[in-house]
User: What shape does this take?
Amino acid sequence: MIAIITGATGDIGSYFVRKIVNEVDLVWAIGRRKSALDSLVERFGDKILPVITDLSDHDSVIELCKKIEGEKPEIRYLINNAGVARMAPVSDFTLDEISNMLDINDKSATLLCRACLPYMAKGSYILNVASASAFQPNPYIALYSASKAYLLSFTRSLNVENEDINCTAVCPGWVDTKMLPKKTKDGIKISYPGIVTADKVVNTALKDCHKGKDVSVCSFYYRYMMFLSKVMPHRTLMRFWAKAVRKYL
Ligand SMILES: NC(=O)c1ccc[n+]([C@@H]2O[C@H](COP(=O)([O-])OP(=O)(O)OC[C@H]3O[C@@H](n4cnc5c(N)ncnc54)[C@H](OP(=O)(O)O)[C@@H]3O)[C@@H](O)[C@H]2O)c1
Assistant: This one.
């Protein structure tokens, strides 16, 4: 029985590895950085199968899907956690950057879900790490936010289509990881309201998926934000958001 975890080299991903490694026989740890994958092997030994894969590269993702189809492993957990973000207006992105972000945040996760489904028994879990930014459109992280809205929508549908598999969209707000820039270029300290640690996100996500929840939000602050996104006009929320972040651009 195995777990497949993308972004296993990152702050949230490596915590998922740590929490799940004893529940399965083997973790397929997906990442790009060999040194970080080697550290996982050093720590957890032969429970880790390091799989170097660039999820922005279509052929590499298909190769990974074919490896799954070829080996037909019994998959207990698929955790699509890899992701990239950048705060900037859409006009600042190159075409390649946009394409890569959508490939990593959405396309690879979707293809991996499809490839894994046939090998997931009743009671297994798919966790797709989205974000609280999926709850509403967010200018200046427009692409990231839209990519995570896709993942939230996709995961919830998948959960209904596959009654035997628990599919959970993990939607944290700010998490203290290396993904967050500590300062802007002008030296202004960015404030991250409601920021939480990676272990809190992972612990809550695992608890929530075991309870069969299709969405996991790990703090009261962001559960309140989710509530606001349901009752307030998005136009108003976007105005507040844009005003708060413009000074960091
Ligand atoms: N930090 C936050 O505030 C926050 C909030 C909400 C949601 N999230 C989501 O949480 C997830 C994990 O992020 P994190 O905060 O733990 O950041 P992180 O430490 O920077 O981890 C990002 C992970 O994504 C992987 N990745 C990036 N590009 C890749 C590519 N082309 N191919 C394969 N893997 C790639 C990285 O692997 P390599 O380093 O090996 O390339 C790394 O393991 C992401 O989906 C993110 O959107 C984060």
